[in-house]
Description:
By secondary structure, the chain is mainly beta. The protein is built from no helices and 9 strands. The radius of gyration is 18 Å and the shape is globular.
Amino acid sequence: MSEISDPIKIAALRPDTSGHTLVVKVVEVKPVIERAAKQGGKIQKIVECVLGDETGTVIFSARNEQVELMKSGSYLTLTNAKVEMFRGNMRLVVPQGNSGKIEEAEMASFEPKIDNNMSMIEYELVPLLPEGGGAAKSGKEDAKIEVEES
């Protein structure tokens, strides 16, 4: 299946985290977008998909060779996936090259929980003030909190 024995569930994903292994089902595949690469490079293919497991769904951005693997209804294992933020919402990506991989999931069979889309939760950076005001003592001045979209 994958090199890491314990896959994480989609509902456990958090902003700006990485190194995740997930077993997912491709729920929806949007049309492919082709963009010219910067500085005259080759054209990049990008497609956004909805991936799901038993705990929820998340939007996944597939690029180039990854696009061919995104077929609605297929089960995949994502290795070394990371959560990126886009306009305050989570997007899952797998880095291209040797650091991440996508492969067919062997013997996976489940129905995704489609009413819990983790990409619909909006996150916002909120400044934290220590008790009594003044400068922050811990050195951390921002923390992430989640706010449901209405």
